[in-house]
Specification:
single chain; about 325 residues; alpha+beta; Immunoglobulin-like; Cytochrome Bc1 Complex, Chain D, domain 2; 5-stranded mixed sheet; 6 helices; 12 strands; about 20% strand; disordered C terminus
Length: about 325
């Protein structure tokens, strides 16, 4: 029997995976020591203090404060150390680096639909560059799914109506398993795929094999025009240029950061958060736009540059000027 056949868990192929494995191994060792120690003490007491004669009478045992404090303090310290360690790891896994490459993923019974920043799409396959931090931005079109790559030690529930994120940095070339780890219907077992980790140059060449008009921001600009958003945006609402990830003041006085979740909500339910000073005339686009189209609209909004100096001017962006309409903030009385 080979060593590979005795492998207790999948290989580790991400930077976060090594930290997860270390914490897991330490917890297994500590648990084994505690279980083994308690079992050994019980066995010792059973043998030493067993009743040897029918007329044996047990003796009362007095309190020993030192023992009481010891068996309380030591587990407490160990639990606090594990808690702090696990919390630090959780926070690390929750905060992607600023230079992480964002890949959009939509879960649907029973497949994973994936789109890269270049616009290239794939289903049930995920191509990644080696050594590059990756941020997966995920949502579901129907039920709860869970995106799970065992070799990366990452698993994140993917819920309809909201965005979930997870990040990692691939550290090994090769092919790895991709699963849905949340029961999602009759074909749940078939909702799986393959992750391909490639050399960065090979990935760039692979990702570039897409038409320019299929880039997410270009698709979003086309949707912005197709749905008539330009009729109101830039006129009855402020420009969208520079709005992404910046604070917006609502009519109720709250200040909200215009992140992906806020922008999505403003497209699906524009009356949920109304920007101060504007009339809520924007219709809902729930049921009219797919999650992939919403991702494209968000990519378009992100691509806009700083706000124009005069109303109605088109902001600077990487989108061609011929296809780049003037845009304004969602939830303020226009369309997306």
């Amino acid at each position: 029997m080979t060593l590979a056949a005795l492998q207790l868990w999948p290989e580790t192929a991400s930077d976060i995976g090594r930290s997860v494995d270390t914490l897991y191994i330490v917890m297994v060792v500590l648990t084994s020591i505690v279980v083994g120690g308690i079992g050994a003490i019980i066995l010792y007491f059973v043998i030493k203090y067993r009743r040897r004669h029918e007329d044996d009478v047990g003796q009362d045992i007095g309190e020993h404060m030192g023992v009481e404090i010891t068996w309380t303090a030591i587990p407490l310290v160990i639990c606090l150390i594990i808690f702090v360690w696990a919390s630090w790891l959780f926070l690390r896994m929750s905060k992607p680096p600023s230079d992480a490459m964002v890949i959009n993923i939509v879960g649907k019974q029973w497949m994973w639909k994936i789109q890269h920043p270049s616009g290239r799409k794939e289903i049930d396959e995920l191509h990644l560059p080696l050594g590059k931090p990756i941020l997966l931005q995920m949502t579901s079109e129907d039920v709860i799914h869970s995106f799970f790559i065992p070799e990366f030690r990452t698993k994140q529930d993917v819920l309809p109506g909201r965005y979930s994120e997870q990040w990692f940095t691939p550290t090994k070339l090769g092919q790895f398993h991709l699963f849905c780890s949340q029961y999602c219907g009759t074909s749940h077992a078939q909702m799986q795929g393959t992750v391909f980790v490639m050399e960065p140059g090979d990935y760039d060449a692979w990702a570039a094999q897409v038409a320019p008009d299929n880039r997410p921001e270009a698709v979003g600009a086309a949707l912005f025009t197709q749905y008539g958003c330009i009729a109101c945006h830039g006129q009855q609402a402020p420009t969208l240029a520079g709005v992404y990830n910046h604070p917006q003041t609502m009519q109720n006085g709250r200040t909200i950061i215009a992140d992906d979740a806020y922008l999505r909500e403003s497209i699906i339910d524009p009356r949920a958060q109304i920007v101060a000073g504007y009339t809520p005339i924007m219709p809902s686009y729930q049921g009219q736009l797919s999650e992939e189209q919403i991702f494209a609209l968000l990519a378009y909004i992100k691509s806009l540059g700083a706000a124009a100096s005069t109303p109605g001017n088109t902001a600077n962006s990487s989108t061609p000027a011929a296809t780049r309409p003037t845009a304004s903030a969602p939830g303020t009385g226009g369309t997306p």
